[in-house]
Specification:
It comes from Fodinicurvata halophila. The chain is of the alpha/beta class and 388 residues long. It has helices at residues 21-35, 86-99, 119-126, 132-135, 141-157, 161-175, 189-193, 226-229, 259-272, 289-299, 308-312, 329-333, 337-352; strands spanning 3-10, 45-49, 77-80, 105-113, 201-203, 206-207, 216-225, 236-245, 281-283, 366-373, 378-386. It is built from 13 helices and eleven strands. The strands form two sheets. The protein has a nine-stranded mixed β-sheet with strand order 3-2-4-7-1-8-11-10-9, sandwiched between helices. A two-stranded antiparallel ribbon has the order 5-6. β5 and β6 form a beta hairpin.
Length: 388
C-alpha cells in the first residue's frame, strides 16, 4: 500500500440532543486536520461517509464539510455509502485518490445522526441494508435478522448463549476505558447471561446486551501518501486494505460461515504477508454478539462451529493471545452507522502510536480490523502498522 493515516479525531458516541449531521461533522473535521499537523488549505479532497437512508432529512451532504473552512471551497467532496461499512468505504475512496496520484492529502469523515427517529423508524431504516424482497418482513428489524442467524447457529452447533454473554461482558469491560464510548459500564458476565427486566430478549436468543446501541457520532482521519507522511508528526501505514462484496440475499449463502468476511481476511493477510498470529489485536464488527462469534470463525481464529472457544478460553481478552475489540467494540462504543468504519481505523491508529490512553495495550505493533455492511455483504479488512 502507498497510503498512511496521519491525523484523526473522534466525537463521543451516544445521544446528541440538538445535534445534526452538519454539527457532528464540524466537531471532528478540522480537529483531524490539525492533529495531522496540516492546515485546511493542504487538503486536496474531502470524502464523507454517511448511511442516512432517512436518518437525516438532509440529502446530498458531501459539501456540508466545506462549511468548516473557506479553504475547503472548490475542493472535490463526495458522499460514499455502503451500509454499516460506509466509513471504510469512504476511506477506500480516499486511498484510491492517493494511489492514483490525483491527490496527496484526503480528509475522510464518517458521521451518523440516528436518534432523531422513533425506535420503529430506526428499525425500518436499518432494515434497508437487508435484501428487502426476502428479508424485509423479518420481525425486529436488523436485530431480527441476526436473531434468526443466532437461532440457526444454535440449531447447527448447540446453544452458545454463554459465549455470546462472554463476548458482551468482555466488550463492556473494555469500553470502560474508552472515553468516546456510549456505554462505559462493566456489566459482568452474569448480567449479560441472565434474562431480566433490564436485559430482556430482543430477537430470537439475542438479549439487549447482545445488541449494539443506537448512536449519534462522528470520526475523522487524514490520509496521505507515504512521502508526505514521513514529514509529519505521526503516521500509520496500510499494509493492506481489502474490500470483498458478497450476495445481498442471505438465501444465496451459508449465512453461518460469513464467507465474504473470510475471503476479505485471507486476501488482506496474503497482501500484507502476515498471518493472524502476527497481529497485536483486532477491532471487529460486533453489531451483535453473534456477529463477533461468527467473525472469529471466518477470520480463522477457530474452526467453524468452535468460535465459543476463543472467548471462553480467554483468547480474545486484552491479556489473551489475540485481543479483540480492546476499544469495547460497537457493543460498548456505539454504532453510528457511517462513523463506525472511520472510528475503527482511528482507534486502531491510536493503539499503534501509543495514544490510546487507558485503552492502550502493552504491545501494539500490527492491527487488523474488519468492518461489515449488512450480513457480511460488504466486507472491509485493513492491516495497519505504525510507520515509525
Amino acid at each position: 500500500m502507498t497510503a498512511c493515516i496521519v491525523g484523526w479525531s473522534h466525537s463521543i458516541f451516544g445521544k446528541h440532543e440538538g445535534a445534526d449531521v452538519e454539527s457532528l461533522i464540524s466537531e471532528v473535521a478540522l480537529q483531524a486536520v490539525a492533529d495531522a499537523g496540516l492546515e485546511p488549505e493542504d487538503i486536496d479532497e474531502l470524502v464523507l461517509g454517511t448511511f442516512n437512508e432517512g436518518f437525516s432529512p438532509q440529502g446530498f451532504p458531501a459539501s456540508l464539510m466545506l462549511s468548516n473552512s473557506e479553504a475547503f471551497r472548490f475542493k472535490p467532496a463526495t458522499r460514499v455509502e455502503n451500509a454499516c461499512a460506509t466509513g471504510s468505504a469512504a476511506i477506500h475512496q480516499g486511498l484510491k485518490t492517493i494511489e492514483s496520484r490525483r491527490g496527496r492529502r484526503v480528509l475522510v469523515v464518517g458521521v451518523e445522526k440516528m436518534t432523531g427517529l422513533s425506535g420503529a423508524d430506526i428499525g425500518a431504516t436499518l432494515l434497508k441494508a437487508a435484501y428487502v424482497k426476502e428479508e424485509g418482513e423479518i420481525e425486529g428489524g436488523f436485530a431480527g435478522v441476526f436473531g434468526e442467524i443466532a437461532n440457526r447457529y444454535f440449531q447447527r452447533h448447540g446453544d452458545h448463549s454463554g459465549a455470546l454473554a462472554a463476548i458482551a461482558a468482555k466488550n463492556h469491560a473494555n469500553g470502560v476505558a474508552n472515553p468516546y464510548a456510549q456505554l462505559r459500564k462493566d456489566l459482568g458476565y452474569e448480567f449479560c447471561r441472565t434474562v431480566s427486566d433490564k436485559n430482556p430478549y430482543v430477537a430470537g436468543p439475542l438479549k439487549r446486551t447482545d445488541c449494539s446501541p443506537v448512536s449519534d457520532g462522528a470520526a475523522a482521519l487524514v490520509l496521505t501518501d507515504v512521502d508526505t507522511a514521513l514529514a509529519l508528526p505521526k503516521a500509520v501505514v496500510f499494509r493492506s486494505a481489502i474490500q470483498v462484496n458478497d450476495y445481498l440475499p442471505m438465501s444465496k449463502r451459508d449465512i453461518l460461515r460469513l464467507e465474504g468476511c473470510g475471503e476479505a481476511w485471507r486476501r488482506a493477510l496474503t497482501e500484507s504477508r502476515m498471518s493472524l498470529e502476527d497481529l497485536s489485536f483486532v477491532e471487529t464488527h460486533d453489531c451483535f454478539t453473534i456477529a463477533e462469534l461468527l467473525e472469529y470463525e471466518a477470520m480463522g481464529l477457530t474452526a467453524y462451529g468452535e468460535g465459543a472457544r476463543a472467548v471462553e478460553e480467554g483468547w480474545t481478552t486484552k491479556e489473551g493471545r489475540l485481543p479483540v475489540n480492546p476499544s469495547g467494540g460497537l457493543k460498548s462504543k456505539g454504532h453510528p452507522i457511517g462513523a463506525t468504519g472511520v472510528s475503527m481505523h482511528v482507534l486502531a491508529a491510536m493503539q499503534l502510536t501509543g495514544e490510546a490512553g487507558d485503552m492502550q495495550l502493552p504491545a501494539s505493533e500490527l492491527a487488523g480490523l474488519y468492518n461489515m455492511g449488512g450480513t457480511a455483504v460488504a466486507n472491509y479488512v485493513s492491516i495497519l502498522e505504525s510507520l515509525r
